[in-house]
Records
---
Amino acid sequence: MKKDLSISGLNDVYGVLLTPHQREIIRNYYDYDLSLAEIAENTGVSRQAVRDVIVKAVEQLKFYEDKLGVAAKTRTFEESVLEAILSLEKGDCDGALSILKRLKQKLEG
């Protein structure tokens, strides 16, 4: 099973919407880089059960992001703030102000 490390970020945002069991297995697999066998041994279930939980939880996390887009909006916000900071470091106050005004409009709209 190939790991999509963006799932860890989605778990940070939407993990509270998963069951505690799903959240913990996702955390073990993506954040702590445990194998399916290690997680199965730690939780007392089969390797296949761990895989099934991961597949279902990943589907749910992607569904939440598709519908709500919180993670994408957060990335956009962070990128805009970084861009404004870089403009300020270059002494471009007008550019930074423009970026921040666009960001404010996005947040309001």
---
Amino acid sequence: MKYIFSPWRMKYIQNHDEEGCVFCNVQAQTDSAENLIVFRGRRAFVMLNRYPYTNGHLMVVANAHAPSLEDLDAETRAEMMELLTQCMGILRRNYRPQGFNLGANIGEAAGAGIADHVHLHIVPRWGGDTNFMSTLGQTRVLPEELEETYRRIREGWGSNWFSQNRRLS
């Protein structure tokens, strides 16, 4: 049997019972590589997924603590979709993915890890990125450290056409 060590997962396992809502907690902090928030709008914010499926895995999170999209007002839903679109553009320029998985897991039964606070996932994809490690080993191999991904995405907001022409904050 072969082993692949992923020591970064231990922090997730040990801290999985964080007090309060993880999204509300990070929202109260100053933006940094530590809390992974790369952009704030008026009604939602963008952050990296701390335990990503691939490099560049982003989340658009409503400021309001609500479990589902239908619990949000129309302006918040619209801003979340606009931010999702901006994320795709930044990821296209910085990572050159060949496709995207976009989605929301609404409710625990649908796979939501944080079911009480609605958020959208943007996962860049490349041809052949599902390999034996993911399929057989149930292990993801990420070629870039999270801090570098944060830097690249954060810098992307400054050069983003949407940010310059349709500023949300």
